[in-house]
Amino acid sequence: MKPNGIVTLCTDFGTRDAYVGIMKGVLLSIAPALRLVDLTHEVPPQSVEIGALVLRNAVEFFPRGTVHLAVVDPGVGSARAALLAVTENGFLVGPDNGLLHPAATAMGLREVRRLERPEFFRRPVSRTFHGRDVFAPVAAHVARGVEPRRFGPTCEMEPLHLSSPVREGGSIQARVIYVDHFGNLVTNVDAADLGTFPSQQVSASVDEVTVSPLVASYAAADPGAPLLVLGSWGLLEVAVRDGNAAEVLRAGVGTPVVVRLDQPASS
Amino acid sequence: MKPNGIVTLCTDFGTRDAYVGIMKGVLLSIAPALRLVDLTHEVPPQSVEIGALVLRNAVEFFPRGTVHLAVVDPGVGSARAALLAVTENGFLVGPDNGLLHPAATAMGLREVRRLERPEFFRRPVSRTFHGRDVFAPVAAHVARGVEPRRFGPTCEMEPLHLSSPVREGGSIQARVIYVDHFGNLVTNVDAADLGTFPSQQVSASVDEVTVSPLVASYAAADPGAPLLVLGSWGLLEVAVRDGNAAEVLRAGVGTPVVVRLDQPASS
Amino acid sequence: MKPNGIVTLCTDFGTRDAYVGIMKGVLLSIAPALRLVDLTHEVPPQSVEIGALVLRNAVEFFPRGTVHLAVVDPGVGSARAALLAVTENGFLVGPDNGLLHPAATAMGLREVRRLERPEFFRRPVSRTFHGRDVFAPVAAHVARGVEPRRFGPTCEMEPLHLSSPVREGGSIQARVIYVDHFGNLVTNVDAADLGTFPSQQVSASVDEVTVSPLVASYAAADPGAPLLVLGSWGLLEVAVRDGNAAEVLRAGVGTPVVVRLDQPASS
């Protein structure tokens, strides 16, 4: 697969400092014609699992041959490896801490290379900012067509297993895995988990509040009312029409959600 | 008019999630050479009127042939239409809820097309994220030169009438329509409303505080002092030199402002 | 030196309004093929010194010929000059208030031009938004190759002298000059200040808390423990492993830090 000249960036660096701008300077110093696209830089600091989720959810919308550069890296400067993952649909560059694993799996992983060749790094390599010194330069070289085998030997990738919901009879013990900008509560329940149950019979309980039924869009509920929807992540979301479910229901990442599949719709 | 390859994006999606990055992935999948420019993604959630103001204020600074993609869309998934507006100066793509109306009017509206042709959508079209599935793909096709008539039939556009100030003798009953990052209070009073009154005689009252006179720049007031200025929106602003007027005057969007045109300057 | 077509932007405009997008519209109206890179737009409002630090720290990572456009401009509309600085490595455009000085010095200053030629401005020039009307148009013209002498006469640049630490015997009286997104406290002490002292003997006191020794990376400390590191700015940082030092140590820009070079390592 050939790179297409697009590099995406996904980090926990925030946008207040110039760290992301500096990475872009390094990228463009090596490959001036790159197209750079920010996924987000507001992954909560050091939150590898949330970064992995955001990345996995975004990669499918980019054209074949895109290089995805991701840095959420609490272990920078330690012995953790730096990786290039080559997949059916594109490339991933980042630390070996699970961050790349769900996206790599979703994209059809072919091989993983351990980044060991300093001629593709910015030198000297600091112990605190591999985004600038290792990952950005390697991503630029990948995007300009350097062959993956030249970056280092093949290796295994640290896995990251996102939590799965647990089925118990007619209910699913789930949890909130992400809260978006609108306050929508994204759960780890997907359409397959809901099976063929009629949407009128699906309900979800967050603490003592039970929300029902499953509707087709946010606009199908009354303003201010909580609702269930299969959202843009392909996952069950608890939302509030024209409101913020995280605030209304006082919920966040990790909050348990009990989904029932056999309830009559609430009135 | 020919598209120029630039697409701007204006949404209420925030930058914490990858929703904007995903829209850019969809755009570049269809038209890899586009130039993408963010206007803002921090329109307050579901605030169609503020989004409309920001968009109207920005479009005139882009070159002819730019495609402006705007999504503040509380009605996503409902029956509200999706639109392409063709104007003298460029194109607008977004929901039919008034968001595009002030900008389209300012740009010289020629015709409006209702987006009905699924071959220009990402499929399947979700009920929750038309930014990704409808508006981004259509904007990319418009920007690569697909003729407007191919997207659907002509239609009317939902109007949005921004509040106008009310003149009563020597005073104008106005209000704050926008608060910017610096805390400057942008009112709905423009230079024409002020007519030919000498700037020394203009004053504005926010609650019990009266600010006067109208000065030429923020730097013309003392540090910490409130001032009146015709700001970069072409509208009367209440500001505080080196400070935050929204905090100092405890004002926000909707706060009434009474402008007087015949007052002697305060000392 | 020839411009390379890249323009970076560094402002205190925030990202909530469309001010940055408008500047990009102006840039692309003049030079449609520019590559635009955001350094940051979250310099604290009117904080010229912090803007100057961020800019100086970022410029070295961009390729030769880059134009850096910086606007932190409390004196907009006053008599302060507008500048183009030509350096060994690139160009700087912005107000003459010290903002450009540390970066220009670091980049090898050759000459400074006072922007006086209105044919390179957007007209009419407002008194409140020179980023849009003066600096963005000039940056675009510089980036498309207009010769520096055409923008105006040579002049001097307002200097900005960043605070230096004071050495007293075995200790250094320093201060926090920047707090980054992770809460890391960046001090004004660099590697040369630390000389050849063994890192085990370096300690730093923030209020009553003494942190020691100097380690090679964030990962070298225990989770939650404070640490000292020479960070990516090339400056001594006080950090907390997997935590936020600014919060834990209740410190911010200006907080005194006493560095000692002769202490035995704490246990």
Work out the helix count of chain A: 6
Content of β-strand of chain A: 25-35%
Structural class of chain A: alpha+beta
The total of beta strands of chain A comes to 15
Topology pattern of chain A, helix = H, strand = E: EHEHEEEHEHEEEHEEEEEHE
Major β-sheet profile of chain A: 9 strands, mixed
End-to-end span of chain A in angstroms? 54 Å
Tell me the helix content of chain A. 10-25%
Computed over alpha carbons, the radius of gyration of chain A is 21 Å
Q: Are there runs of chain A of 5+ residues with pLDDT below 50, and where?
A: none
Based on Cα principal axes, name the global outline of chain A: elongated
Largest interface: A-B, 35 and 29 residues
- Quick check: average pLDDT of chain A? 94
The protein's oligomeric status is homotrimer
Description:
The structure is a homotrimer of 267-residue chains. With 267 residues, chain A is of the alpha+beta class. Chain A contains six helices and 15 strands. In chain A, strands 7, 8, 9, 10, 11, 12, 13, 14 and 15 form a nine-stranded mixed sheet that branches. A six-stranded mixed sheet of chain A has the order 2-1-3-5-4-6. In chain A, strand 10 (203-206) and strand 11 form a beta hairpin. In chain A, helix 1 packs parallel to helix 4. The N and C termini of chain A lie far apart (54 Å). Chains in contact: A-B, A-C, B-C. Chains A and B meet through strand 1, strand 2 and helix 2 of A and helix 1 of B.
